Amino acid sequence: MSVGRFDTASTTPPATDASNPSEHSTNDETERTVVKAERWTHAFVVRSAGGGAPTFIKRYLVPAWDAWRFVFGHARAARELAAMRAMRSAGLPCVEPTGYAEERSPWFRLRWSEIRWVFEAGSDLGHALPDADPTERRRLCREVGALLARIHDAGFLWGTAVPRNIIVTASRDPALKLCDVPYAVRFDASIHGSRMALIDLFTAAGSRSRRRDFSRGERRRILLAYTRGDRVACRRVMRKLDRRSQLGHRTIRGLLRLLTSMRLPIPCLRVLRAR
């Protein structure tokens, strides 16, 4: 499928009621399985009766009171498509996008947008962690730290570095893949170890939620892999994350998310946009 708009009639979720979508539906040509049904986000896997790789579809619904933001801004799915393509071209492990669609009112107010990518067998890290044994958890922590280092070396700020946005692949080649990157920002040089990189590091290993997901030893293991075994640098980053406030982090992250949705050029900062 070519990248860009496609027939929106063929991408309608299997239920019209956003609060109560069906878990499974079939027709003569496709089989759809809902994997996520939140108020403003639907996700489902489409399998064709004729065979071929399954497709993962993620649709972002936009409430009427928030639609004005996207009159002069890019839809989330459009930003995500551009970010995925840029990350893959930089050699980063990311799911393979196949297209996106959006629907706007006559006044250009966004109603919904959705992105498609080739379905990856496996589970997200958030679901894999509770079932993993201690040895496997240590391996996953090292993989997360190494993945963040690669992202920052390539000049990207991920923006949504949480376990549910990382796929633990069944093939383990690569072991982890990115699957949610709508707020990614690309800089002209590596940001590894910089103040900007702390946004991702705090989200991945320093926030309250990550302290529930990982023990302190596991969070240190993530940072040790990020610093490539440099224990002095690891302790320094750990201290910075311990001093970082949740409110300050959310404020900075929210500002960056606002910038990624703007159509206007931003000096010294390349914001990923759909072409």
Characterization of the model:
This protein has 275 residues and is α+β, with helices and mostly antiparallel strands. It folds into two domains: 8-118, Phosphorylase Kinase, domain 1; 122-271, Orthogonal Bundle (Transferase(Phosphotransferase), domain 1), CATH 1.10.510. The chain has helices spanning 76-89, 125-131, 134-153, 197-205, 208-213, 216-226, 231-243, 246-260, and strands spanning 24-26, 30-37, 41-48, 55-61, 97-104, 110-118, 122-124, 156-157, 166-169, 176-178, 185-186, 270-271. Strands 1-2-3-4-6-5 form a six-stranded antiparallel β-sheet, covered by helices on one side. The protein has a three-stranded antiparallel β-sheet with strand order 7-9-10. β2 (30-37) and β3 form a beta hairpin. α3 (134-153) runs parallel beside α6 and α6 packs across α7 (231-243). The two termini are 17 Å apart. Residues 1-24 and 267-275 have low confidence and may be disordered.
